[in-house]
């Protein structure tokens, strides 16, 4: 075998072990007994030690030295781009630090969930201080004298920096704030009333997953505190959550996670368990979940179909017709929770987190001051006070897991989704007629062909350029939002 073949065989085994570690994380958030948390932390640390050792194995370095990338085809060169980057990154992080991060974040996740349930920030602060300190060490090792937060962003969105993201967010904020102000000043849509039984919600949410192309033969739908998608290739699992007075929480969390899962399930099987066999970045990943959830799932055409489905399942639920339902689904309203935010305000939630975690990583904000900083910033941005920690700094799981640099990719995903939606609408001019019948297949097939099947073949920006045919900017997203909500609220 050639050095390339040897390296790819070795990498395939490492990737498979990484999938096993990921499944431990899935189990921890869905089915693991609460009393197993301490042992699970040790198990996660052990897996990380094994993975780290394989990633820095001297044979990897020798194979990389022997391989001439120029002699490979486009796929081989793309594989090497990922392997070389992963190897260089892993070599910078000491094995004991990587294992300690895995151990502490596994323990931190359980403590976060309990603190959130108890509305007790103080109970979470000590372990979050550990997580932040460890992630700073990791960031400093990766940055090698450069910007620590940029090094963290690079884990989730290669080619992107905090300065570029900050400039984009600063340009977006005034138009989003103006749109929000106009919508909140207009007449509010009819709100859902009544009770929506959990069993009926889960039955319909599985139908929604199927309608958006989720392959249940290679996945499953479960419940979790914080909805997420996990896995790749032939085993891609999603979670959702239910609230008896708010079925949209369940339905749109499911559609969102199906977007992530469809990306992983749609990647060319030839890339299975290789570096190309997963989403290329979190921003691109989020573009799929957001276009599924919003531009498709919250469109006037699709909500007309969903209205009929809900009437069949729940009977009369207080919304008169499909037009009123479309407005209800897309209502702009005050709220605290990022995952429940409307399209207009969602990115403002991300901008808050981006600035706070950037300050945490720079050492400009102490963990003990995080709750006060969050509450002050939220009131300044949204105009009302946070009422409890689970609606404030304890609402998201990300920081407990050490996922610093992840949050800005949510807004970047919205920007990418805006570009993709513009191109999709040009390519499929009769899309609304299909969505009105509950048929998303042409839209999802377009996304699969133009973006999903390629996995990590291209860089993130080139992935969006290739799929959309345009240079990624925030303009298509902002134009879409202003057009849609301007019409909904008569602005």
From TrEMBL:
Record keywords: Carboxypeptidase, Hydrolase, Metal-binding, Metalloprotease, Protease, Zinc
Listed InterPro entries: Peptidase_M32_Taq
Molecular function in Gene Ontology: metal ion binding; metallocarboxypeptidase activity
Xref: SUPFAM superfamilies: Metalloproteases ('zincins'), catalytic domain (SSF55486)
EC number: 3.4.17.19
Cofactor binding note of this UniProt entry: Binds 1 zinc ion per subunit.
Keyword Phosphoprotein listed: no
Entry annotation: catalytic residues: 257
PROSITE patterns for this protein: PEPTIDASE_M32
Entry keyword Zinc: yes
GO biological process: proteolysis
Protein purpose: Broad specificity carboxypetidase that releases amino acids sequentially from the C-terminus, including neutral, aromatic, polar and basic residues.
Family listed: Belongs to the peptidase M32 family.
Protein known as: Metal-dependent carboxypeptidase
The organism of origin for this protein: Shimia abyssi
Taxonomic path: Bacteria, Pseudomonadati, Pseudomonadota, Alphaproteobacteria, Rhodobacterales
